[in-house]
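Z., the sequence and structure:
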Amino acid sequence: MNILKNKKIIILGSGRGIGRATAVECLKLGASLGCTWHTSENAMSDLAHLADSLHSAFFHTQIDIADKDSVDKGMDYLINQLGGVDVLINCSGIIKDRAFPFLDADSWEQVIHTNLTGAYYAAHKVLLPMVAAKNGTILNVSSVSAITGVAGQANYAASKAGLTGLTKALSRELGPYQIRVNAVAPGYVKTEMTEHLKEKLIKEAMERIPLKRMAEPEELAHVLAFLASDLASYINGQTIVVDGGLS
């Protein structure tokens, strides 16, 4: 079932991990797609081949989510190429984990600026087109770290908690214009972000997760695609936790 047919979707951070899996899922479900990447341009060729095989529109551009001019330019390009935007899915994010006494100001500011301020830049660009159409969906990828807290992730947890708050506030402000704003909060997911984790930490996490495993990126993509579709037309202002029961 093509539940995203005729949807014009922009996915930020679609070169790898959850973003890439979500791009694949959206294409398979019938969407026209605009993707952004920062350092993973090679991944775009595979998505382009998939789009061609499905006869789906596909465009991509490089964006530095922490740079407003870069976001403005890239988003304008994708919106123009797609002929509008129905859904924005924000999968961009970085981590710079450090024990708090050793967390320098630069690492704090980079994570907050990329994960939270970058979301503001992108949402701001789709706001007017969606308000004019009186229709739209904005989805943010938060984290279970924002809910439970994780030692050594003060900057990351704070940025994702801010993203959850932004989601809630925008859902109230934009709801009257029929724009839904939701978030997903993943737990441990098999991506490049979790590859750096020490084996001891992973083992301890698996002991605390009732399903006893990490999520596959595709499992998050399924949830994001559902929230982007009209099947989720009355879900607004929510953060859907997808953590295998960890929290």
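The radius of gyration is 17 Å. Residues 105-133 form the longest helix (29 residues).

Let me know what you think.
H.
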